[in-house]
Amino acid sequence: MKETIQFKPSLKLMDATMLVAGSMIGSGIFIVSADITRNVGSSGWLLVVWLITGFMTLTAALSYGELSSMFPKAGGQYVYLKEAYNPLVSFLYGWSFFTVIQTATIAAVGVAFAKFTAYLIPVFSEDLVFVDLGFLTISPAQMLAIGVIVILTYINSRGVNSGKAIQTTFTLTKLLSLFGLIVFGLFFLDSGIWEKNWQNSWTLAPLTIGGSLGSYTTLAAFGAIAAAMVGSIFSSDSWHNVTFIAGEIKNPAKNIGLSLALGTLIVTVLYMLTNMMYIGVLSLHDIAYADKDRVAVSAANFIFGTSGTIIIALMIMVSTFGCNNGLIMAGARVYYSMAKDGLFFKKAGTLNKNAVPGFGLWIQCLFACLWCLSGKYGDLLDMISFVVVLFYMLTIFGIFILRKKRPDADRPYKAFGYPVLPIVYILMGLAFCTLLIIFKPKFTWPGLIITLIGIPVYYLVGFLNKKGVK
Length: 470
What we know:
The protein is mainly alpha-helical. It has helices spanning 13-24, 33-40, 43-70, 77-84, 87-120, 140-157, 160-187, 191-197, 218-236, 252-281, 284-288, 295-304, 308-340, 358-374, 377-405, 420-439, 441-452, 454-466, and strands spanning 131-132, 137-138.
């Protein structure tokens, strides 16, 4: 029987913008500035790393606007790669997306939610043992993460409006909370700390635990910037999730591009202000060596006293809960598009009675829960950063290919600053990936290998399709 259920365009510009911003802001902004500071060793370069990342994110988002206006349908980046290149390239993206990029990110954000819940309810501590199977130890934090992922998957399986309500509410709450933290931080700014942090503010060198500075060669300096950007790029990633649900956005040709621009701009400004606040209330050493890298907790304790930990714990719980809702909502639409092309489980290409890809949501949930149990998702997120930027570059280069292949195609929105800004992004991305290969090979090659494993899988799927295996 032919499927008659279709996606329902229910999301307005506000909802789409909240999905962009909400998917970007998870736990990273509260943590990763510690590692960045250890790599670059100065306040000026800390801000430069975030500024470069913000520029790259905004440039990519403005470039994706053209692609989203050309192909305003479910699948987003997967569809863009297929149209610009071929099904193999798009499958490799979809394969990486399902096996690691989206599912491991959902797991990591879920465990971050659980870790900060443990501040308020210690029974959920990651240091406790819930189940000991000998070969596998499971903590209450992991079980809570799984519970949250299952609950959000169920809510989103009930229809796009259910997920939309959570996304908009939680994103607005965390945007206002983060803005409030910035305002209080800047109000209580310590001029002595601020001035000291800006001494030698443009000296690029590693910051050791003893506070002494080493030195970098020219090449190593670029490597340090690239290594530092792994954290900021992770914190700014997932902005493109809105393109996956194009079929459920009203006037997608216009609103996807606008939501990408607005959402990434809002988050970039907030991230820059947050780091300026860190510099104003904490010494560089306290930023770099905050307990378990929880810079925001240290800052909140300075601003609010002993209640600061509770305030930040609540903020991160709200932030990660809303972030995971956006990731879960959007991810299943990629598997839907892959299934329609015969490159994923056939059932993932159908919509349930609530007009959402229910099977895709639940199989995504299963893999994300497995990553929660593995305990290896943190390493994999570092490993996949290289691949994420690689696919961004390929997608943006696809604009040049499609301009040549389809010069007369309808383009309601054209990439801002074309061809200069897209070329700048590609060059910056190439530099970032090359430096990671040189300076972080243990994080680069595994991610690339996971992606390349998709090549034989692609041909195996094609063979099975020819044989009629479903």
